[in-house]
Amino acid sequence: WEYCDIPACVWDMDCFTGIGVHYRGKKYTTTYSKNCQNWNSDFPHPHSYHSPEYNWAGVGDHSYCRNPSSHGKPWCYTTNLFYRWDYCTIPRCNRDEFNYYKF
């Protein structure tokens, strides 16, 4: 017998596909350079996206951009009291620029 050359998926890429519900990168600032609020926190902005209810969306004890609302693209609540949320500047995955699989 021999091993098959089956690729392993890369989930922590710095790009997203579709509307970004599967994005698991580590971007933690918004388009307007606001820091992201921890998803397990309700300060300064209360919300309902707490884990474990939204574990499928990758939210949890971190401040990374995610898309648990399934709208638009990855975003986050900000730590700025006067700026509730914002989208994150994350490029869309491009087959010519990113390796989708590791062999």
Can you put this structure into words, describing what you see?
With 103 residues, this protein is largely without helices or strands. Helices cover 0% and strands 10% of the residues. It contains no helices and four strands. The chain has strands at residues 8-9, 75-77, 85-87, 101-102. It has a two-stranded antiparallel sheet. Strands 2-3 form a two-stranded antiparallel ribbon. A hairpin with a 7-residue loop joins strand 2 and strand 3. The radius of gyration is 16 Å and the shape is globular. The model has no long low-confidence stretch (mean pLDDT 86).
How are the secondary structure elements laid out?
Elements: E1 8-9, E2 75-77, E3 85-87, E4 101-102
Task: State the main characteristics.
103 residues, two-stranded antiparallel sheet, 0% helix, little secondary structure
Q: Summary?
A:
With 103 residues, the protein is largely without helices or strands. Helices cover 0% and strands 10% of the residues.
Rg is 16 Å
Order of helices and strands: EEEE
Q: Please outline the major beta sheet.
A: 2 strands, antiparallel
Structural class call reads little secondary structure
How many β-strand stretches?
4
Morphology call: globular
Average predicted local confidence, pLDDT:
86
Strand order of the largest sheet: 1-4
**Could you give the distance between the termini?**
19 Å
Q: Work out the strand percent.
A: 5-15%
Low-confidence stretches: none
Fraction of residues in helix? under 10%
In DSSP terms, counting alpha (H) and pi (I) runs of 4 or more, how many helices? Answer: 0
